[in-house]
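Hello,

Our lab assistant flagged a job as stuck in the queue for most of the afternoon. It eventually completed. Since we weren't sure the result was trustworthy after the delay, we are filing this so someone can double-check. Below is the sequence as submitted and the structure that was eventually returned. Let us know if re-running is recommended.
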Amino acid sequence: MQKELMALEDLICIVDAYSTGKKLAAEFQKHGKKCIHIKSSIKNANDAKRMEFVEEILYEGNLQNLENTIRKFNPTHIIAGSEMGVELADKLVASFQISDASNPSTTQYRRNKYYMQERLYEQGIPCIKQFKSNDMNEIIQWVKRFRTWPIVIKPLNSAASDGVTICENEFEIQAAFDRIYNQENRLGIKNEEVLVQEYLEGTQYFVNTVSWDGIHCISDIWVQNRRRLEGRAFLFESMSLCPSKGKIENELKKYTEKVLSALNLTHGAAHNEVMWTKEGPKLIELNARLMGASIDDDSFRTALGYTQAQLLALAYVNPKEFINNYTRQNYRLYKNLSEVSFIFHKDGILKSFPKKNKIEKLRSFHSFIGLPELNTIVKKTEDTLGLPGYVYLLHEDKYIIESDLNTILEWQRNNEVFEIDDIE
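-- returned structure --
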């Protein structure tokens, strides 16, 4: 028995290895490191055990019991694999006194969207004007004093644009408040307050990072195409990889590093959503984990030479190599890369994918990721979960990618990508 336990020592714990967090265990295995998987919710208890983990452990609400179960593995690192795992990972970091981690006493800066912006305000960093309350009338009064439309209503902590609504009047605020308040969000947390924020005009960017001991690596920057969804927020239609240098990119990098430091994200990955406004960059939100949805590793490695998950594993296994080779420098763009997020235009039964062959014949086509199965029931897309799947476009010539991307978006906006039958 003692020999068996010795073989299991010094493992890495990944909390909720979902979305792109699924890739982490395989990346650690390349360095000879074994991982255990901690599931933070009973909702995921029926997931099939994945072979890349030595063990999978379900957290059933008793932190002490979970700590006792994990202790035999002598974890060296505890990492959030997805948004839902951030808070539990930080609690375990505190329990096991893991030093190579962001300070768990400041989790709310990295998890709660209200405290996130308040912290930036305290640090003198450009941020969003906002207010939170559990009282609908208080929110209306704040909006009247703010006197600028539209405004944004959202939960204080959730994921995948859950509940995010752009409101043009008080009636829409009431409807959004009713959808959010006292409801359970995508992280299984009851929304006891509702957040109202100013609406930012501009272009949205994703700035992905990996940090170690307060030193930050900007791993990749993406610019988004998005379309307003009536009665909600935006549909994210596509994103394109940006060069690492440029007037906007340079400002985004400097701003994001200030944000990471202000929010005490000293170790690990972050997916930062930043709006480029006429005043410059402003944080929409920081997510203390890898960029989500489905990532095509081959296209990322061809375009960048690495993936964010690969850099994250390297930082934990060999911090010196990570810092020397990937921080304080610009990333190199070997090829241009874009991703189109498919959208279901209505509820129904998915009957066919009529544009599939034409998309595959486009000059920059690289791959499909996460395509849905035919003859399944689908729901109209109103979030960023990516259930309809993606197409990746890869090419040396960015203008060829732009042309192909616009062709796909035109088909999508005309509802030609998928054939969806009504449910009788």
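-- support follow-up --
The delay was a queue issue, not a problem with the job. The result is valid. The chain has 14 helices and 19 strands. Residues 1-7 have pLDDT under 50 and may be disordered.
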